[in-house]
């Protein structure tokens, strides 16, 4: 039976930091992921004393950071914005190290299938710089799956010649947006996976990821109304979790399954359902 440590996204509780950390510990989680992009936890606001305080709150409850979320919401497809966003991303990676964490996750935009596309080259330039910086810290800047197929992402990553930029595999994003098979994605991206999200969802109708992720304008009116996919509690969607976890075990993955719940009116309940579901699947509820 496979055994993966379970993490929880702090922000998914939609409450204050201390309460969220406490709840995660009470649910039996082992790790945490949190956003460090703006507000109190942005690098420019995290003094040495505050960083130590945050780390103490986490460790005193028997937890550790599985990853830090560094998604700035812009991607790296605009050369004019990349200098600022790359520097911000570097500061987040440095903060993660201070929080005793080697993984920062993000969305980089939508990787075009055409390697000769200008946006592809712009994104590669930014990611090459970020990969080099991550390597210098012995860290990983991990791209979250979903906006493009696993095959397209692998080709993009292979072109960087580094594992500094790696993969945060989110199986729900794959089934909801691209319709990609998350089990096959594990094997396709096996050399790059350093973190995973435990999330579930359902694809409702076909869509263009470039409009979903707002990287090509103008956005057609129907995309402002949504309705292309629905995130659901773990086990209620189309992610085949038993097969997905078996594939992760097969490739030798030993990292976290970090629960992310971005919607729903009772996140604490849904997170508990997810923790219990994963423990049942992995057999850790019997240990």
From TrEMBL:
Determine if Isomerase is one of this entry's keywords: yes
Domain Xylose isomerase-like TIM barrel residues, every copy = 22-280
- One GO MF term attached to the UniProt entry: isomerase activity
InterPro entries named among the record's database cross-references: IolE/XylAMocC-like, Xyl_isomerase-like_sf, Xyl_isomerase-like_TIM-brl
Which keywords annotate this record?
Isomerase
Q: Does the keyword Nucleotidyltransferase apply?
A: no
The record, for PANTHER family, names:
HYDROXYPYRUVATE ISOMERASE (PTHR12110), INOSOSE DEHYDRATASE (PTHR12110:SF41)
Would you tell me the protein name for this molecule?
A: Sugar phosphate isomerase/epimerase
């Amino acid at each position: 039976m496979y055994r993966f440590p379970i993490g929880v996204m702090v922000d998914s509780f939609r409450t204050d930091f201390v309460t969220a950390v406490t709840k995660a510990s009470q649910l039996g989680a082992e790790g945490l992921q949190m956003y460090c992009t703006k507000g109190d936890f942005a690098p420019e606001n995290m003094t040495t004393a505050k960083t130590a305080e945050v780390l103490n709150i986490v460790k005193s409850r028997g937890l550790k950071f599985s990853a830090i979320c560094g998604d700035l919401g812009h991607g790296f497809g605009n050369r004019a914005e990349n200098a600022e966003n790359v520097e911000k991303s570097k500061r987040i990676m440095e903060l993660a190290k201070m929080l005793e964490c080697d993984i920062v996750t993000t969305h980089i935009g939508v990787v075009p299938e055409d390697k000769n596309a200008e946006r592809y080259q712009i994104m590669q330039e930014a990611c090459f710089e970020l990969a080099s910086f991550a390597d210098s810290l012995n860290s990983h800047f991990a791209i979250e799956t979903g906006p493009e197929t696993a095959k397209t992402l692998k080709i993009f990553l292979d072109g960087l010649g580094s594992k500094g930029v790696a993969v945060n595999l989110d199986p729900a994003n794959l089934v909801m947006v691209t319709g990609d098979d998350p089990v096959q994605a594990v094997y396709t991206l096996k050399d790059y996976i350093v973190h995973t999200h435990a999330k579930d969802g359902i694809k409702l109708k076909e869509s263009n990821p470039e409009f979903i992720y707002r990287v090509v304008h103008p956005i057609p009116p129907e995309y402002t109304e949504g309705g292309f996919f629905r995130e659901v509690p773990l086990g209620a969607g189309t992610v085949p979790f038993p097969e997905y976890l078996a594939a992760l075990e097969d490739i030798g993955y030993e990292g976290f399954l970090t629960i992310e719940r971005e919607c729903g009116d009772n996140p604490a309940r849904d997170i508990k359902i997810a923790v219990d579901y994963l423990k049942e699947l992995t057999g850790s509820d019997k240990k």
